[in-house]
Input
Amino acid sequence: MRMYLISDNVDTYTGMRLAGIPGVVIHSREHLKEQLNKSVADKEIGIILITEKLGKEFPDIINEVKLHRRLPLIVEIPDRHGSGRSKEFISEYVSQAIGLKL
Output
């Protein structure tokens, strides 16, 4: 299984290409729908990386795939502007997942 990047900026795309991950840069809602459908249909793609900015701008499109499909796994990644998450995000996430405060 492969990874595939759907990015809103060229910098993230370029960095991932240097790491060997193919992808696409998109700038519109329709292009996101098109690329997401194309990626989901490709049985070789196991993980789709999407920049957090796209996740915030178009949560309805992304959540539709997350809720109705087991594969591929969709992971939101920070882009060149950094993450909008708190510094304690990982600890909070683990605490919620296992039900224990760390």
Summary: The chain has five helices and four strands. Residues 3 and 49 are 7 Å apart (CA to CA). The chain has a mean pLDDT of 83. Residues 29-41 form the longest helix (13 residues).
